[in-house]
Amino acid sequence: MTRLLHWIVALMVLATMPIGVAMLQEGIQRSTQDFLFILHKNGGVIILLLVLLRIIWRVVTPTPALPTSVPHWQQRVAAAVQAALYALLLIMAISGYVRVRAGGFPVEMLDAVGMPTLVPRSETLADRAQAIHATARFPLAALILLHIAAGLKHAFARDGVFSRIWPPLGR
Ligand code: HEM
Hey, which of 17, 27, 84, 154 would disulfide with 162, CB 3.0 to 4.6 Å? Predict the structure, then answer.
């Protein structure tokens, strides 16, 4: 479950970020832009639900200890980076939701299941959420790169760390 959730969220975030940038480009066709917005908003809501599930799962099934070959400071940095990644994903998804809902726009997937709008209509709130959404992507991108670099280092070192999270399914 941990490995499957990790790789689904990883793939979805790696797709959602470039889609978010692409959909805001000047000069793209209206129909393409609408399609990218629908993918981005609804993908973002699915990421939010999966991250919440992942956090609950992590609390009920604690992560096994890292091999003792990994220096203590690296274990502490890894834990801090992972906590920051969870926090930034939550910030991105919630600020995206608030930006859209406070701006009076649909989130098609949630509308389809009859989910009520959880935030009031407000341009000020929408603008603040938009600013948070546009800013938090930078530390998120930086930490994702750091996380991937560390993962690759362990994969090449074959020290038993990467195989804790790989493969996504089965062994
Ligand atoms: C973890 C999930 C998410 C990530 C990583 C993400 C990432 C991004 C990125 C990188 C951009 C481009 C920002 C820019 O160039 O200024 C963006 C824009 C946007 N995102 Fe997200 N997003 C996520 C979730 C959501 C959700 C859940 C919604 C709405 C339900 C949403 C709605 C939007 C909107 C409306 C924009 C355009 C902002 C504007 O008005 O300028 N995002 N997102």
Answer: 154
